[in-house]
Amino acid sequence: MHTQQSRANHFLGWTTQVGLVNDPCLPEYDIQARNYLIACFAVSPIRGETILKRQIKYATINNYVKAAVKLHIDREFPSPHHAKTDYISIVLKAVKKYEKEPDRQHMIDDEMIHHMESLRADLDPDSLEAALIDWIYLGRFVGYRGIEWCQTKQKEYLKIEHPSWTGPPSYAFIIDDIEFFNESKQPLHDLTGLTVDDIRYFLASHQKAEEQSELRDPTVLQGSCQQLNGYGRIYASIF
After folding, report:
1. 62 FRET partner, CA 20 to 30 A, in 143, 187, 201, 220?
2. What are the distances in angstroms from CA 148 to CA 22, 23, 132, 160, 225?
3. What is the pLDDT of residues 108-126, one digit of tens each?
4. Range of the domain at 48
5. Residue 105 belongs to some domain of the structure
6. CB-based contact 165:210 (threshold 8 Å)
7. CA 163 to chain centroid
8. Residues 232, 155: one domain?
9. How confident is the model over 203-210, as a mean pLDDT?
C-alpha cells in the first residue's frame, strides 16, 4: 500500500515537472485527455525516471500506471483506460513486446535524438549520415512501414496487383513516386548532380495501394507542393 502511494506521489510530482499547474486528474477535460496524460507519464518510468532512479521492467512500469489510474478511480472518475483510444495500453503493450525481443538494444530516446542533432552541423547535408538521421526522425515522429526498408523474399519485391493501378508497381514508395521542384516550383526531371539545396519542394504524385489491395484514386494529388522536409529530404539525400 505504501509503495503504491509512493508511485502515485511520483505521478503527481511528474505532472508538476512537466508544467501541469491544474488538477492532475484533469476533471475539466474529457477522458481521452486523461488517458493521453497517463500514457505520457508511462514513458517516464520506461526511461528510468523512477523513485529509485533506475531502469525497471514492464510489471513495475504497469504498477506505476495503476497508481496514477487509481487516483482517478478514487475520485469516482471513470478509468482513463475506458477512453476510445487507449494510449496507455498501446504504450504498455509495446514495452511488454520489446522485453521479449532477443538481444534487444536500448531504444532511441530523446537524449540520443538531441545528441544526433548536435552532430548534424558538422555533416554534409547530402551525406549518408545526414540522410539516416532524417530517416530516424521520420520513423520516430510519424512512423514508417516495414515495407519501405525490407521485403519478405530475397529476390523479389512486393508489387501492387490491383487491376486499376497504373503507377510504379512497387508496393513500397520509391523515387518514381515523388516529383521534385526547385525554388520557383519548376519540376526537376533529372536529379543528377543536384544537391539537397537545389530541391525546395516535393509532391507525392501517386497514392500507393493500402493493405488488402484497397486503392484510392491514383489521379488525386496530395494537395499543393510541400516544402522539402521529411520524405522529400530523405529521398533527395538517399537517391
Report:
1. 143
2. 43, 43, 14, 14, 22
3. 777 888 899 899 889 998 8
4. 2-99
5. no
6. no
7. 32
8. yes
9. 49
Ramachandran region, residue 84 (left: φ > 0; alpha: ψ -120 to 50; beta: rest)? alpha
* CATH number of the domain residue 9 falls in: 1.10.150
3-state secondary structure of 74: helix
236 in Cβ contact with 228 (< 8 Å): yes
Q: Are residue 156 and residue 62 in the same domain, yes or no?
A: no
Reduced to 3 states, what is the DSSP secondary structure of residue 70? helix
Indicate whether 114 and 90 sit together in one domain. no
- Model-level pTM? 0.56
> What total number of domains does the chain contain?
2
Residue type, 97: K
For the stretch 11-25, pLDDT in tens is 999 999 999 988 999
- Please say if the pLDDT value at position 49 is more than 50: yes
Is 5's pLDDT higher than 90? yes
Q: Going by C-beta distance under 8 Å and a sequence separation of 6 or more, which residues neighbour residue 97?
A: none
Q: What is the CA radius of gyration of the chain?
A: 23
DSSP reduced 3-state for 11: helix
Task: Read off the DSSP letter of residue 80.
Answer: G
Q: In this structure, is residue 131 part of a structural domain?
A: yes
Is residue 49, in this structure, part of any structural domain at all? yes
Q: Which three cell numbers stand for residue 217?
A: 484514386
